[in-house]
Amino acid sequence: MKWINRNDSESNYEDRRGRGVKRGAAFGGVGMIIVAVIALLLGKNPFQAIDMVNSVVPGQTSEEVVDPSRVNENEELKVFTLGVFNSANDVWTEIFTTQMGKSYRNPVLVNFTDQTTSACGGASAQIGPFYCPGDEKVYIDLNFFHQLSRDYGAKGEMAMAYVTAHEVGHHVQKLLGIIDQVNQYRGRVSEREYNKLMVKMVLQADFFAGLWANQAGKLGIIQLEPGDLESAISATTAVGDDTLQKQAMGYTVPDSFTHGTAAQRTYWFKKGYQTGDVRQGDTFNDPGLK
To answer: In what order do the strands lie in the sheet with 13-15?
Structure first.
């Protein structure tokens, strides 16, 4: 992936790496939904992820253990991730203004190490990157990208860019009222039906990530190079519910899927990239997802 016009502004950036963090808050409401979604991206049951958060002792502080060999590498990852994050905001500002007649409000990118707090509660790096609707911030421990490559076989810059653009996609859903609409069904429909809504929400964020790649190219922000799309698809394939469940259990339970299969995630990312049309991303009314 080649940068043509990278925006390195830190006006919507918060660096919490290496800080001691007092925690102890619990997840709840909409925030719990999105964190559960991203927890499953890493193959974790959402309730196990919540337990990871709630098991933190109130008032406990974290101490960062620095791996010197990764300091420079993580600084490069920070610059790259911030560039993708800013470019996604630039893309969505353009789409909201010219295609929707709406105003776009930038989220904030937070880099942290191991543990942090959010309006959705305390968070551990074990749950992976997440978006908190309560404070409109995207939280990423940069060490996750090492795990993405090492444990999930998703290598390359576009795999990392996909993750970041996907999280910004959840912010777009917050601004459009989609997260609130999905949350209204909690406890009102069966778990199976609610899981289907979760799948549609995640697949739409995948579509939005593909849309970012398309529009960032058209706006002269990035230029995709040979192998870039394959890099992104290696990530969408790695985080499919069927892929993760087969790795963890040796079999799949389709009714428990909350993200979509590898094929679905790849399809919607590619659809966003190929069409570049936000109107094509209505996963909630797609006949193939009923």
So the answer is: 13-15, 108-111, 137-140, 130-132
Q: How many CB atoms lie within 10 A of CB 179?
A: 21
Taking the C-alpha atoms of residue 289 and residue 184, their distance in angstroms, rounded to an integer, is 20
> 143-152 and 68-95 are packed helices; what angle lies between their axes, rounded to 10 degrees?
90
How many CB atoms sit inside 10 A of residue 5's CB? 12
Q: CB–CB of 152/137 below 8 Å?
A: no
Q: Kindly list the distances between the CA atom of residue 44 and the CA atoms of 36, 38, 206, 255, in Å, as whole numbers in the listed order.
A: 8, 9, 19, 16
Q: Kindly give the residue spans of alpha helices, DSSP state H, lying in the chain.
A: 29-41, 46-54, 68-95, 143-152, 157-175, 178-183, 191-218, 228-238, 241-249, 262-275
**What residue spans define the domains of the chain?**
2-289
For the question of whether the overall pTM of this predicted structure is more than 0.90, the answer is no
Q: How far apart are CA 43 and CA 49, in angstroms?
A: 10
Distance CA 146, CA 114 (A): 14
Q: Express each pLDDT in 53-109 by its tens digit.
A: 444 433 333 344 555 556 677 899 999 999 999 999 999 999 999 999 999 999 999
**Rounded distance between C-alpha atoms, residue 28 and residue 50, angstroms:** 9
C-alpha–C-alpha distance, residues 215 and 106, integer Å: 17
d(CA 216, CA 287): 29
- CB distance 64 to 94 below 8 Å: no
The alpha-carbon radius of gyration of the chain (Å, integer) is 18
Q: What whole-number percentage of the chain has pLDDT above 70? A: 82
Contact present, 10 and 105 (Cβ < 8 Å):
no
CA-to-CA dists, residue 103 to 88, 94, 108, 172, angstroms: 15, 9, 16, 11
